[in-house]
């Protein structure tokens, strides 16, 4: 006759998730939060500023430059040329 099967204790039956999986889950949640929290209003015309809806501040091109690689910054909206796109 075979001995009765013994079930492992609860702590051994439920394995912990690997740290990498937990980190990936947290980073995905953070990225989702950032994408939904920082949304930019799309301008109706090409000469309107990009305004962040949560903060009310404008996206501004440093030095009023339109060349590729120009640094962007968030600034108070003031109608400057670097804020119109």
Secondary-structure topology with pairs:
Blueprint: H1 10-13, H2 19-37, E1 58-61, E2 72-75
Antiparallel strand pairs: 1-2
Basic shape: elongated
**Number of helical regions:** 2
Strand content: 5-15%
As residue ranges, the low-confidence spans are: none
- What is the helical fraction, as a range of percent? 25-40%
Q: What structural class should be given to the helix and strand makeup?
A: alpha+beta
Encode the helix/strand succession as letters. Answer: HHEE
N- and C-termini, Cα separation: 82 Å
Gyration radius, rounded: 26 Å
Question: What number is the mean pLDDT?
Answer: 75
Order of neighbouring strands in the sheet with most strands = 1-2
Overview in brief:
The protein has two helices and two strands, in the order H-H-E-E. The chain has helices at residues 10-13, 19-37; strands at 58-61, 72-75.
Explain how this protein is built.
The longest helix has 19 residues, at 19-37. The chain is an alpha+beta fold and 85 residues long. Strands 1-2 form a two-stranded antiparallel ribbon. The chain contains 2 helices and 2 strands. The chain has helices at 10-13, 19-37, and strands at residues 58-61, 72-75. Helices cover 27% and strands 9% of the residues.
């Amino acid at each position: 006759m075979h001995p009765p099967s013994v079930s492992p204790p609860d702590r051994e039956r439920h394995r912990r998730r690997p740290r990498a999986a937990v980190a990936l889950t947290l980073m995905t949640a953070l990225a989702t939060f950032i994408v939904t929290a920082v949304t930019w209003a799309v301008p109706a015309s090409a000469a309107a500023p990009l305004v962040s809806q949560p903060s009310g501040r404008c996206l501004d091109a440093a030095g009023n430059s339109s060349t590729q690689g120009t640094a962007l910054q968030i600034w108070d909206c003031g109608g400057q040329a670097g804020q119109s796109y």
